[in-house]
Amino acid sequence: MARIDDKAGRVKGRSTTARFRQLSTTYGTKLKVKVISNEELSLGYYRLLVSNSALSGAAKAGQFLMLKVSQGDNPLLRRPMSISRIDLSRGEIEILYRVVGRGTKKLTEFAAGMSMDILGPLGKGFDIPPSKKSILVGGGIGIAPLIGLAEELLKGGGEVVVMIGGAAGNDVIGLPQFESLGLSPQISTDDGSLGIKGFVTSLLEGYISSITNPNDYLIYGCGPNVMLREVHRIASAASIECQVSLEGRMGCGLGACLSCVVPDKDNKYVTVCKDGPVFDSRSLSW
Q1: Which of 76, 134, 254, 266 has the fewest CB within 10 Å, making it most exposed?
Q2: Predicted confidence (pLDDT) at residue 1 exceeds the cutoff of 60
Q3: Which CATH number fits domain 133-283: 3.20.10.10, 3.40.50.2300, 3.40.50.300, 3.40.50.80?
Q4: How far apart are the first and last CA of the chain?
Q5: pTM over the 0.85 mark
Q6: Strand intervals (E) in 123-254
Q7: Among residues 139, 180, 142, 178, which one has the least CA distance to residue 160?
Q8: Mean pLDDT of the 155-169 span
């Protein structure tokens, strides 16, 4: 999952601004979308719904968008946002986001009817092989892209189990969306205010302890890297294939600035934005 870098320093100078504009034109699909709604779901968490049929037709679960959050160049850098749901019939894209800094605060100012400048869809989405039972594990804002993934899996007739968690009940997002798909997520919170008290990885460990044929299953994870490291460990110990959507601080979202690189198992570097954000967990160095 793309992580918003609202704490990055401002990039100054006309030449830098021009370079980012050039990169956007060269490597990304620049589109105008119409804002349908932008509503607060719970304290600090918002649901943004935008419309563009070309975008919804090209997007895939697990990909992300780079959103221009102001009408001018302040802030200059776009904010990466995971695609939560794709509605092909309406030509709409849903984005769930959390306000964590100046950029995402400005994003809350967009109202229905306004136009927004985006790049996307970007990155590598989830791979959905046939005949697999899917276990979806999400933490915090990392729950967002798993909603669209669950929808795609169910359309294909797959069996889906969902486990989501957060620091507190307010941080467990997407529950109504999962329930609208006929799913009943297992829930955990650090403080015990919703679901069981503990980490979502404990739910995963408990569930797979009874699995007798690991080849029948595939684990999908999205959330903080510390959580994904544990998801990978549990999956590896059980010999279950695992795909993870990484968080990474992004400047361009196009693989050019290299601010989001992470090491792979061969001690080479890959970019979260272009090579990912979704990876086979076995391909990374944890």
Answers
A1: 266
A2: no
A3: 3.40.50.80
A4: 17
A5: yes
A6: 133-139, 160-166, 186-189, 196-197, 217-222, 241-245
A7: 178
A8: 95
